[in-house]
Design brief:
Alpha-Beta Plaits, 2 helices, globular, two-stranded antiparallel ribbon, 80 residues, alpha+beta
């Protein structure tokens, strides 16, 4: 299951994100994307978790939690 995490602090690393989500189960990948637009820099991440029940627990457990000083938004990633 793919998870979308947004409103990440600009200094969050893939290792930070992986460590946070490992508390809920196996993590198969983490990818952070950074948009460095001068007027609105933003960072979001994609997290892969193979077991749906662990992914759903991670979504509800991490949504609104602070990571490096910012409350993050966590949702199931939409399909392509």
């Amino acid at each position: 299951m793919r998870i979308y995490a947004s409103n990440l602090a600009l200094d969050v690393t893939e290792e930070d994100l992986k460590e946070a989500f490992l508390a809920f189960g196996q993590v198969t990948y983490v990818k952070i994307n950074r948009d460095q637009a001068p007027d609105n820099p933003s960072t979001f991440g994609m997290i892969g978790m193979p077991l749906k029940n662990e992914a759903k627990a991670a979504i509800s457990g991490m949504h609104g939690k602070k990571l490096k000083g910012r409350s993050i938004a966590v949702n199931e990633a939409g399909g392509r």
